[in-house]
Design a protein that fits this description.
Blueprint: H1 2-33, H2 38-42, E1 43-44, E2 55-56, H3 58-87, H4 101-108, H5 112-121
Antiparallel strand pairs: 1-2
Helix pairs in contact: 1-3, 3-5
């Protein structure tokens, strides 16, 4: 019975990683079915041209990298939290994320260049 609970614990701990990988594979498959590449997503479409021939956008690249980094950090923290909750027998305190606000704010800064570009396009 202890072996079953250990296997169940491992599954619970690694479940966020499995869900993340599965989600990324499904997204990649859907994009491939629609023949959309990363270059299409990272370039600004012109009014009369398709996205692939549009100009490259550094702000979209920064937004993309910030988003992926945020997702990976979220998966890692969730996995670590599950691990500490299940396997840490001598721990009397919970996971302290009070100093993690600075990391989240730093990743949020990656959204600013893209937001500024989009606001700049709006004609008032």
């Amino acid at each position: 019975m202890e072996n079953v609970s250990e296997i169940l614990g491992i599954i619970i701990v690694l479940l966020p990683v499995f869900i993340f990988v599965l989600t990324m594979l499904v997204i990649k498959k859907r994009l491939k079915e629609q023949s959309v590449g990363l270059a299409d997503l990272l370039s600004e479409p012109d009014d009369n041209k398709d996205a692939a021939s549009g100009k490259k956008s550094a702000s979209r690249l920064i937004l993309f990298l910030s988003g992926v980094t945020s997702l990976i950090l979220g998966v890692c923290i969730t996995t670590y939290y599950f691990y500490m909750t299940i396997y840490c027998i001598d721990c009397s305190s919970n996971l302290d994320l009070s100093d993690f606000t600075n990391v989240i704010l730093a990743l949020g800064i990656g959204v600013v260049p893209y937001a500024v570009n989009q606001v700049k396009k709006i004609k008032l």
